[in-house]
Amino acid sequence: MQIDRIGDLDFKVADLSLADFGRKEISLAEHEMPGMMALRREYSEVRPLAGARISGSLHMTVQTAVLIETLVDLGADVRWASCNIFSTQDHAAAAVVIGRNGTPENPTGVPVFAWKGETLPEYWWCTDRMLRWPNAADGSVQGPNMLLDDGGDATLLIHKGVQYEKAGVVPALSEEDADYTEEYSVILDLLRASLSDDPQYWTTTSPSIIGVTEETTTGVNRLYQLAAAGELLFPAINVNDSVTKSKFDNKYGIRHSLVDGINRAVDVLIGGKVALVAGYGDVGKGASESLQGQGARVIIAEADPICALQALMDGYEVATVESAVERADLIITTTGNKDIIGVDHMRRMKHQAILGNIGHFDNEIDMAGLARSGASRIEIKPQVDEWRFPDGHTVIVLSEGRLLNLGNATGHPSFVMSASFSNQVIAQIELFTKPDSWDKEVYRLPKSLDEKVARIHVEALGGELTQLTKDQAEYIGVDVEGPFKPEHYRY
Amino acid sequence: MQIDRIGDLDFKVADLSLADFGRKEISLAEHEMPGMMALRREYSEVRPLAGARISGSLHMTVQTAVLIETLVDLGADVRWASCNIFSTQDHAAAAVVIGRNGTPENPTGVPVFAWKGETLPEYWWCTDRMLRWPNAADGSVQGPNMLLDDGGDATLLIHKGVQYEKAGVVPALSEEDADYTEEYSVILDLLRASLSDDPQYWTTTSPSIIGVTEETTTGVNRLYQLAAAGELLFPAINVNDSVTKSKFDNKYGIRHSLVDGINRAVDVLIGGKVALVAGYGDVGKGASESLQGQGARVIIAEADPICALQALMDGYEVATVESAVERADLIITTTGNKDIIGVDHMRRMKHQAILGNIGHFDNEIDMAGLARSGASRIEIKPQVDEWRFPDGHTVIVLSEGRLLNLGNATGHPSFVMSASFSNQVIAQIELFTKPDSWDKEVYRLPKSLDEKVARIHVEALGGELTQLTKDQAEYIGVDVEGPFKPEHYRY
Amino acid sequence: MQIDRIGDLDFKVADLSLADFGRKEISLAEHEMPGMMALRREYSEVRPLAGARISGSLHMTVQTAVLIETLVDLGADVRWASCNIFSTQDHAAAAVVIGRNGTPENPTGVPVFAWKGETLPEYWWCTDRMLRWPNAADGSVQGPNMLLDDGGDATLLIHKGVQYEKAGVVPALSEEDADYTEEYSVILDLLRASLSDDPQYWTTTSPSIIGVTEETTTGVNRLYQLAAAGELLFPAINVNDSVTKSKFDNKYGIRHSLVDGINRAVDVLIGGKVALVAGYGDVGKGASESLQGQGARVIIAEADPICALQALMDGYEVATVESAVERADLIITTTGNKDIIGVDHMRRMKHQAILGNIGHFDNEIDMAGLARSGASRIEIKPQVDEWRFPDGHTVIVLSEGRLLNLGNATGHPSFVMSASFSNQVIAQIELFTKPDSWDKEVYRLPKSLDEKVARIHVEALGGELTQLTKDQAEYIGVDVEGPFKPEHYRY
Amino acid sequence: MQIDRIGDLDFKVADLSLADFGRKEISLAEHEMPGMMALRREYSEVRPLAGARISGSLHMTVQTAVLIETLVDLGADVRWASCNIFSTQDHAAAAVVIGRNGTPENPTGVPVFAWKGETLPEYWWCTDRMLRWPNAADGSVQGPNMLLDDGGDATLLIHKGVQYEKAGVVPALSEEDADYTEEYSVILDLLRASLSDDPQYWTTTSPSIIGVTEETTTGVNRLYQLAAAGELLFPAINVNDSVTKSKFDNKYGIRHSLVDGINRAVDVLIGGKVALVAGYGDVGKGASESLQGQGARVIIAEADPICALQALMDGYEVATVESAVERADLIITTTGNKDIIGVDHMRRMKHQAILGNIGHFDNEIDMAGLARSGASRIEIKPQVDEWRFPDGHTVIVLSEGRLLNLGNATGHPSFVMSASFSNQVIAQIELFTKPDSWDKEVYRLPKSLDEKVARIHVEALGGELTQLTKDQAEYIGVDVEGPFKPEHYRY
């Protein structure tokens, strides 16, 4: 693949001519992202991220454009790739490359490597390019000194790169890794090429990394596993578990974008239908509310008895996928786990049942098994496939089992991303400006910063906050300015 | 404008090459339109509409394609135009022209005159073409013998045509008609040309019309006014007031398509926002539920105290547009009345307030006033305009004040349209097969047919109906097969 | 049974010493009944009901007390009985007897014949007493000249009385009437005694009756059947079908009082439970919303396909009692029909399933069959019985299958009754002041009066109504002051 | 006050003759408390609490009776008092005293000191009696060795007792304690008498206490404050923060019991009303859902911006009490803080506004200020007072500002209490059977026990739990049997 380059700017996007449309939508999004605007106002003079080289792996959407330009306003240099092959909005990517004051001839923006509909090799190529910086002023090879991650693919690539460079060899894809076959072999190929090209690239560049901020449940789980194994190469801030991230993005963002994705994909009346939602975590809760708000009858499949009890109390039926799959018109996976919907389930589904995933990874639905099953695929339109089984019944699969809200719609709306990204930016500042405060562990943001993010967004919505008196604050043992709850409070 | 013609087939659509995509979506829609499929099964041998020449004016969407092909299967000849300049789905129009067994070279479908984004002159040209049939076998001029209307534009054109032919002159646009200026002058121009071309066209062809079936509140109101004035030229069946139409399409269809339209247009988080919904009829009820289901706080403006009391009981605030407009992030009109949102209201709206209409006509929002107001228009994308007032605040207007669910999304979903169109088809059969049973009045369908439509759709959703015993039926004074309620029952 | 009498006032209530408590609750209720207060303000000088002798059969509650005293303020003489053996609130009955300015020694109120927990013979005795007025000034036997009915028992007694007096004999309970055995034999006994005591009582007094106003679906059905058979003895106004009655009392009143009744009866957590609601008319809609609002999962049983489709669209499962009864924790009947839940259903219910009726009559649940079934009854507390089947499982039956919101709680709240009773009072005025305007038919109130009732209650809740401009009113073809909708509009 | 005594059993309840009714309701409650039944089945042979002397301070309701008898079945000796002056259900108290196999002549139950409507001195006398055990076999003075607390009053009395015994004097009520005046002076009087009677009572008995289990937010806050100050006398398990307690009892229990309390108190239609809910923690969330489920429009007052943002996202208005109090028909406090509603607020309320508290303590509403304000009190019925201000407007105060769900209704329903009490029992077992495992700190139960409680209740509701495969469990890094979430997970 060939990098595009105009002047000093290297990048790879679908079509720079979409930049005008992208810029208009970015302008609208800014109004809906009060957290980004507040951080720009607070920090754009101090520029706390001056000197930061941030490599970002996160869906390259209009909202992410506002994040990127906020990081830039705070002083950072930035490179970007998407963290999903379908999630890039090409007009946003183009606008970010051109920049706020640039022109197609003289782009002044940020190097972006992302387009909608990448192949897996292209995806990992983009991730790789986003992590390779132009050489330093002294000519030395240079990587990022900060990572901003969504799902952990940037972190994964660096850790694997270091591991294999230390081993001196990239292994063949073993039998045990069969589950990862398709995607993982792409990574191995890429790292094999890297090892042959520069056997010390990742080991040379990774020590400069001050830390990573990660915003998904899935990515955070990976980080905790690395930390527990003593293999984490740099500190991490778990942005996902800020309340204003996990309980907003995951719940209210999904409430918005699940029906949006379904509607744009298939435009089927949701009212009166039976929807089977696998998982009743925050994503599942938002998904269920979304579907119920449209008049669907929701059945929840859940392994955690506490979440299952919540589902029952919220008025949903709780059943296993096994027992409910034949009754469902819509099946949505939200678990963050794998192998939730298998081909045998699909064989038992209603004719034209709609199947989609809104959990982070694409292994909740067994797409590989479906491809092998003898079912034939009819593409209705991009990201909407009808798979016909030999008995004639069909299943409509959205976004090939990847995040349907990104593949079939535009993902989370700006306001939700404003809260999530405020946590990202604050975490970047925390890590970068206090580089010596952290071990190679996974940290969460202090509650006071979480409340700060909330406060900005409450005010943007016109909510009036109650001010505690000194007396009241003392009575419940808090400061009048907060934080107002103990660490273990569950909201 | 030039008619396209391949072989004997005259038509005018955007792009015939979209027909394959259209056909795929029509196939999916058929599964979601059990009412159409049931009527095909019941009637395709009998062909009760054999001999019918149906001119249809109704949004040319994928669902309408299924309706058209159902009418054809029942024996009818059909010509079609859209009843809204933005509502045509070009792939559906193309597929209908090509037909189920046709090819681009040899289309075997139906003459369609419709494309997305017509100008007003183009719109009325299409309506006119749809009403002009190829000459009869004996060479005589020929119009439709049946009308299928949505909003009443086909009926309007015929009535005006006859009126002016009788007068022998088409009047100039008078002062009193100022409200209708833009659109009405287009109609007058068209009829003036018609009068000069064939001064007896409408009076010659209209007597063959057995009747019209009409499915909107607005169109039905026009019909009742014509009937009350003794000016109705042919019998009419008010399909709108079938319960399975007005209480389903208007309520559940809007619940589906309002958020869909907003999401596709601006993708703004609805949760936490304040939405002002003008009107709490069936459309307003569906709109409110749609917004509340996404977490908005809804305020209702309503003139009818009964509907207002319902809104209060359903948990909404009831306020006037005057008093609530400054608090709203979203303003949606659903009244079927005119002049609901004026420019003075827009001047007082929040920055980037979103303004859209989901009532039938485009006069709920004063778009003409806005154009004259000194506000400047920035097109974000088709059907999404940001209007900037001199003080800098902007208002985002969807679909130029026309039906936003059609302009910004795909309108009602198939399942809802299946119920509405089942009523249309049954009404066409009733009128056409019993031509002598009707005066020049407006009729409603008998409740038994309404219940038949409901039964088909309940069963399609897997609902089990309870069968009354003879004893129970007698006890409540009904037949065991229904109808189950008195005529005045309100559901 | 002995009538109580103090001075000229005859009555029969449980305990006059409860009057003070009753009066306090009546005062609170007056604030919640803005319709009653508005009618008092409007009419208490004109006294349009002066000369009316109103016999009322309607649950003798605190709210009914406000109705009775409104009728008195408008000039009427009134006698009262409850229309349900369990629904009397004894403190309200006592307060009405004592009157607003009376004392226990010198009561100045209204003759009431009602107490909580009447036997069936007592119930019909009360109804009979309420219909027998003190002799006229000239000593002649006298009955009411107006009836106010709820369920139609007053109307029934008069019609049966006249029928048997004409026949000269009261028949034995025949085989065919087996269904009515218990209650109907009580009526026959009472009329047999009446016939022997005064063979012309009903034929003498009934011709003075100007008309009846009736407020239940059940009572109205009886009236339409009588009218259809040409047997209706006097005109009737169907108050039930005022929108502000049937769509408010039946829906929002039930939403309030169903959970209230269940909670007071058994105090079982409704959240997480499965509730089977038989019937999805207005009562069923309110019941379902009530239960869903508490987190239950609701299954609807319904014979009418239109209502069934609404239930599906509202997100409920639709199934038959047969197929759902084993899954339900709560079973509520709302149909207005009979034989909905039989003993075989009860045999299949879960242990400690809760069974109650909120439809008008007590024949929805087969209580007689239960008594014969071999199940044994354990009274937990008044109106809550646990019936134990031979296999050990039990079913908890509320209010012996009679209206549970009245038997286990206090019935509809004041605000709802304010709307219903406003229609009753307006209908009484219409009938009484225009005695020559009516045939022996069933009439509905004009929409303008319905809207008037709504307007009073909207304003009481702080709702702001929109005022149509003259232009807007003309555009939709209505008067600026309403009525705003065509007669057939369904709200 | 005199202790009642029959045989060896000392107690003080309202009326032993209510025991039969109490026993019937306890039997019904057992079916609704699957957690208690499961623990009895699991542990009644092992009797892990044999040797435990448990003093319990917790609302003496039917549900608590099931808890007490579960503790007894697990081997414990138990004494009991209520933790609220209004919350005792006298029939439950009577039944517990009589015991499952006892008779009025020979009661074999548990010493209970509780009745509905205690005065404050009576309340603290009961608490004191519940903490004083019959002398040990060797004649030595004896207290409990385990505490089970709800709100922390038992713990408070012991800590204050020890403090003042160490100081040798009980202080006069100082100026600084003015807030606590009424209640606190009662405690001081009681401890002054205790000091004079036995100057070493509390210091002698308290060292035997192995620990306390506490289930309210308020009580837990006190414990954390004591622990932070190093003053906690014994270990504590914070049962409140088990998910199956705080997120179920506080949320779903309140959803049930708030409308129940309001309905039984005033029976006012909630639909269409404006409700101001102060606080949007778990209790506030449940309260809001409860009111919205009945058709109220809810406004939230909240100091914590995270909770405020949740309220907005859930569709509620967020405003201060100051700005919203004049619009509200219902005002409910849920904060766990003090001085939420002052007399100045009440002065500004609507006529007949309804004011109640559902937070733990009675200092959320300034009842003392109201008494001093010049407003006059009219008791409508027990726990419902109308306070009339000099300008004539009145405010209806429920349960004198104490927990309205307990004062006006029956508190949480059995099923919810089953979850809470399962945590209590498990915590009692954990503390008592591992006495050496704990420091004088506050502990939470391990998540596995929380999930165990959830599992029992999911199964009781018929929910089917999904079983993770070994592969899936490994993939997300958990054991197949759970726990399934990290400690910080918020549900």
Automatic annotation (TrEMBL), chains A, B, C, D:
Q: Does the keyword Zinc-finger apply?
A: no
Which keywords has UniProt assigned to this entry?
Answer: Cytoplasm, Hydrolase, NAD, One-carbon metabolism
Binding annotation for NAD(+) = 216-218, 250, 279-286, 302, 337, 358-360, 405, 412
Question: A single GO CC term, please?
Answer: cytosol
Quote the record's binding site residues for substrate: T61, D150, E215, K245, D249
Q: Which GO terms describe its molecular function?
A: adenosylhomocysteinase activity
Record text on cofactor binding:
Binds 1 NAD(+) per subunit.
The main place the protein resides is: cytoplasm
Q: Where in the cell is it found?
A: Cytoplasm
One Gene Ontology BP term is: one-carbon metabolic process
Kindly give the SMART domains that the UniProt entry links to this protein: AdoHcyase, AdoHcyase_NAD
What does this protein need as cofactor?
Answer: NAD(+)
Domain S-adenosyl-L-homocysteine hydrolase NAD binding, by residue range, is 250-411
Pathway-wise, it operates in:
Amino-acid biosynthesis; L-homocysteine biosynthesis; L-homocysteine from S-adenosyl-L-homocysteine: step 1/1
Which E.C. number(s) belong to this protein?
A: 3.13.2.1
Which reaction equations make up its catalytic activity? S-adenosyl-L-homocysteine + H2O = L-homocysteine + adenosine
Explain the purpose of this protein: May play a key role in the regulation of the intracellular concentration of adenosylhomocysteine.
Entry's family note: Belongs to the adenosylhomocysteinase family.
Protein known as: Adenosylhomocysteinase
**Which species does the entry assign this protein to?**
Nakamurella flavida
The record lists the lineage as:
Bacteria, Bacillati, Actinomycetota, Actinomycetes, Nakamurellales
The gene name on file is ahcY
